[in-house]
Amino acid sequence: SKINKWFLRVLGSVVMRMVNPKMMKKWGYSNPRVDLYATIDEFCKDLNGKPFIHGNEISVTDVMIFGVVRAVENLQTGRDLFAHNQQFKEWYERVAERVGKSQRIE
To answer: Looking at the DSSP assignment, which residues form a beta bridge with residue 9?
Structure first.
């Protein structure tokens, strides 16, 4: 129901605000945006010119990373990721072409 969705969004937001500082400390992150860019740069370095993580064929790993990024692609974070690293954007578009449109139903 709409009330349940609203409640979960509010509760999730509150819980994430409480957990976020602890997780950042645990994993040694100081600036999330800078750390995210560094991770994307390392990912692209590991691609080493290959179209997908394991070569010419898409893998489960590609799809898993794609799924995480797809969740934020229309948010500022997603737009910033694509602007930050053109190679990452190209990889994302290749995976999106193979995966196809979302089958999610509201």
So the answer is: none
Token representation of residue 44: 């692209």
pLDDT (average), residues 62-90: 94
Using CA atoms, how far apart are residues 40 and 11, in angstroms rounded to an integer? 30
Any idea what the Cα angle at residue 87 is, between residues 86 and 88, rounded to 5°?
90
- Residue 76 — pLDDT band, cuts 50, 70, 90? very high
Yes or no: say if 94 and 62 are a contact pair by the CB < 8 Å rule: no
* Phi, psi dihedrals of residue 16, rounded to the nearest 5°: -65, -35
Return the number of other C-beta atoms located less than 10 Å from residue 57's C-beta: 11
Closest C-alpha to 47, from 36, 61, 68, 33: 61
Residue type at 90 in one-letter notation: E
pLDDT value for 98: 94
The mean of the pLDDT values for the chain is 89
Q: Is 49 left (phi over 0), alpha (psi -120 to 50) or beta?
A: left
